[in-house]
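Show me any protein, fold above all:
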Amino acid sequence: MNRLFFHFWSRRRLIRDTEGRELSDLAAAHRHAMLLIHKAAVLLDELDWHGWSVRVTDEAGHTVLNVLFPQGRYFRSARSSERPYRGTAR
């Protein structure tokens, strides 16, 4: 298990995760980052998330994964159905 940190990041702003989370591998980290993105889209839907990502770092501060927020179509879908869009690209 590794402690990983999930920071919300854009070119202009960084929202640091100071607690982190113990996860077994990068696949679990990716799933957790996607869950955070979905929650942000649903709970904070009035914010413009264009250009944001969840930057996953290890305890030394090295980036191990960077998960981009989806385009606007995802957010419209998330608000209406409360689930992330999982269809094919359009």
